[in-house]
Amino acid sequence: MIWGGSILLSRLIGLVREAVIGRVLGGGAAADVYFTAFTLPDFFHYLLAGGALSIVFIPIFNGYLERGEEGRAWEAFSVTANFILLLLAILLPALWVAAPRLVPLVAPGFDAVQQADLVRLTRIMLPAQAFHLVGGLLSAVLQARDRHLLPALAPLCYTAAVIAGGLIGGPAAGGYGFAWGVLVGSAIGPFALPLAGCLRQRFDWRPILRLNHPDLKTYLVRSIPIMIAWSIVAVDDWILRRLGSLIGSGAVSTLQYGKQLMYVPMGVFGLATGVAAFPTLTRLIAHGEGAQAYTTLAGAVRRMLVLAFAAQVVLTGAGRGISMLVYGGRIAPDQHAAIGVALGCFSLGLWAWAAQTVVARGFYALGNTWVPSILGTAIVPLAYPFYVWAGGRWGPTGLACVSSLAVSVYVVALILLLRRRFPGAADGYAYFFARLVPATAAGIGAGLLAADRLAGANPYLAAGTAALAGLVAYTAVAAALGAPEIREAAGWLRRLGRPAASPR
Q1: Fewer CB within 10 Å of terminal CB in the chain, N or C?
Q2: Quick check: 316 and 344 in contact, CB under 8 A?
């Protein structure tokens, strides 16, 4: 419940953050530079497997706690945390110094003024990664002790600080207000909150560093697949920013704004499902019930995709109106239209972005981090020429379409490889997609037709009508084709809207 609520709130406050960015920076060069400034810090975070800290470290720490060896648990924490600090002390200053030489590779299309701003913004944001990485390890300790509140609050505080920085700086400060918010927010949210929680849990961080320590070796072996792999899931953003900078002013912003709107339902449906399903999958596999684990995962994916396809219908038909509502009047009407088109193209891959957060955890539950990493990395060189070609031919629209195609190919391959790990287990995907894909196409068609008929009307009225028409068509066709997940989703929504019984 804590994580489900946190993920939902995180997406909502993230939408508020994007709305503030749109209203402060608009959709031109300042926004392009700000969004691109995340590339090198994100690269550094990915290089040190920051996103996998909890998945990798919790089993190590928790294993000692379950055996009653708390001292050894803290020893494992100390050698791992101190090793990460050593890497930070070496690599962060090096990257900070090298930033002027690296930004032309990140955004070759920016002019000299934009690249100078990009260097300064990057240097402000880089130290934030130290707080994210060490804080991630502290959060893993709390989660291993079943203390989830402070880790769940950490991203909310971080995003709130980014919003505050942008509002305090205002348009005069440009991206710098948001950048300082990133730095301060990372210190308060991802680092200070988990640290406060650990200090209440008999915190025992020791000044020891042994590179041959078995727990450090275990941590590195499990992290290496993520460290050395450049999966399409992470690299897609970097490619979009790099090639977007070559298209012209506003292209990076158009892509960023469109993709962030797609991320809202992806995070709510996909990430929440993945987090909720992972403990169950791990337990079933540990008990030797692999077929049941796969069937459980497939059922979770199907139920989640019912909502993801519905969200795709809404975002495609109502994209322009949603962009105007969220990002405001500092963005020109023609760019709102471009964001709406990009959003529709990104939404073609919404199902895959949502599904990969769940399907990849099937491999993680098996103790296999290599397959998702290698497969995702293999997709990048195969897809990159298509990014270049489509971006040069159709601009942001082409890049968004190839982005969706690349992640869709990745997820289809991931599902097929996971199925091979559980021969004979049923997943129901063929029956499901045979009914939901036509329903989604019907919903998108109805939504776009409604939007076209109301092209000259109030944009919010047109967006609402398009969304409603699309949802009605989607639900009707899916129900007519006999998709059982539609009934399950409807029942879940009815239960969600029903008033809770009064406590006795």
Answers
A1: C
A2: yes
Give exposure, 430-460, as e/b (b: 16+ Cβ within 10 Å): eebbebbebbbebbbbbbbebbeebeeeebe
pLDDT in tens, 11-51: 889 889 999 999 999 999 999 999 999 999 998 888 776 66
pTM: 0.90
pLDDT band at 177 (very low <50, low <70, confident <90, very high): very high
Q: How far is CA 55 from CA 60, 147, 252, 456, in A?
A: 10, 16, 32, 51
pLDDT tens digits for range 180-221: 999 999 999 999 999 999 998 788 888 998 999 999 998 888
Tokens of 279: 């403990």
Q: Which is it for the CA torsion 231, 233, 235, 236, positive or negative?
A: positive
C-alpha distances (whole Å) from 488 to each of 178, 218, 307 are 42, 42, 11
Classified as helix, coil or strand, 330 is: coil
Distance CA 121, CA 136 (A): 23
125 contacts: CB under 8 Å, gap ≥ 6: 37, 38, 41, 179, 182, 183
Contacts of 389 (CB under 8 A, 6+ apart): 398
Q: How far apart are CA 155 and CA 185, in angstroms?
A: 9
Kindly report, residue by residue over 397-411, the tens digit of the pLDDT.
999 999 999 999 999
Residue 498 is classified by DSSP as: S
Report which residue type is found at 76: A
Euclidean distance between the first and final Cα of the chain, in Å?
22
Distance CA 437, CA 435 (A): 6
Tokens of 111: 């002019």
Would you kindly state where each structural domain of the chain is located, as residue ranges? 1-228, 230-490
Structure tokens at 217: 């070796």
